[in-house]
Design brief:
The chain is built from 4 helices and 6 strands; from the N terminus they run ααβαββαβββ. By secondary structure, it is of the alpha+beta class.
Length: 157
Amino acid sequence: MLPTLRASLPYTLALAVLAYFAFAFFTLEINQAWFVVIGVLLAGILVPVLVDVKGAAASPSVTSQEFTGDTATLYVGNLPYRANEDAVKELFSSYGAVKNVRLMKDRQTGRRRGFGFVEVSAKDASIMINKLNDFEFHERTLKVREAKERQEDDNQE
């Protein structure tokens, strides 16, 4: 289920029920099933619009930590397979500025491999390593260290 749908579904259903009761007080010559349909349609239109407006209002605070300058790339191992980029970015953002998060996936299956890389501000990197190495995250103990440069194959000439 999409995160926006998961967030808006309870509001949609609540608004549909409220619309049903509001229309039920009108003594129109309409079957009560139509009141439910009208309520669901109204809720289906209004709630996603309200969720988008709320999400747009909240996004400037997230981008306020954008930075320019020296960056460091951290290796993050033993990640839970259900963790996504947003959850990892939120965790690391509590200790400093995060520029980018890349979680590695298996090429054949597309499933996450349990590790990734987080590009952070160079001045915040050591703080993040100290705070988040051996940190319990979604019932897994993270391993955080500075990423090593990728080694080139010697047989490619």
